[in-house]
Amino acid sequence: MEKDIERILIEESQIQKKVKELADRISKDYRNGNILLIGILKGSVIFMSDLSRNLDLNAEFEFMDVSSYGNNTYSSGNIRINYDVKYDVGNKDILIVEDIIDTGRTLNKIIEVLNSKNPNSLRIATLLDKPDRRKVNIDISYKGFEIPNEFVVGYGLDYAGKYRNLPYIAVLKEKIYQN
Predict the structure, then answer these.
(1) Predicted structure pTM score
(2) Catalytic residue numbers, as ranges
(3) Model pLDDT for residues 124-162, shown as the tens digit of each residue
(4) In 125, 170, 174, 175, which residue has its Cα 20 to 30 A from 24's Cα atom?
(5) Distance (Å, rounded) from C-alpha 117 to C-alpha 82?
(6) How is the chain split into domains, by residue range?
(7) What does the angle CA 100 – CA 80 – CA 67 come to, to the nearest 5 degrees?
């Protein structure tokens, strides 16, 4: 995998420090109750796991599988909910856990779906934010890193199902995804 990496954008130690900072803020904000973490599969799994282990409060888990990329490096604009929450989220304090926010279209659809289920509150935590690509305004409560408009992999993010297990965030060589 290393040969496919152009450069490391965010080191593993930086990620772990930021995850701890976010978890501390979330723990403080939700100190009087429970929280329902809804991870967006598959990219958020590593971030959500590390984040939850650093929380100082009760956290329940649920997942959604939503796709708009397929094996492309850009969103098709066709947003499909492949797996919706099975848990009753009414009157729950929900924290959507996302790996990266790009155009915001997919997350906007997720927010729409979850708000229709009448949660008590709904906030967003993302490890990465790409504001230069934003098409939809998204209110991000907890943001890890703002990154430039480059195609990144690692720490849960993939290209065609690969590179998720890298412990850092890296820019993938263009020749890998241009083929």
Answers:
(1) 0.91
(2) 102
(3) 999 999 999 999 999 999 999 999 999 999 999 999 999
(4) 170
(5) 17
(6) 13-148
(7) 30
What is the greatest pairwise CA distance in the chain? 51
Q: What is the pLDDT of residue 32?
A: 82
- In angstroms and rounded to an integer, the radius of gyration of the C-alpha atoms of the chain is 16
pLDDT-flagged residues of the chain (< 50): none
The residues, ordered by sequence, that sit 6+ positions from 89 with a Cβ below 8 Å of its Cβ are 36, 38, 62, 114, 117, 118, 119
Query: Amino acid identity of 178?
Result: Q
6 CB neighbour count, 10 Å cutoff:
15
The CATH architecture of the domain made up of 13-148 is: 3-Layer(aba) Sandwich (3.40)
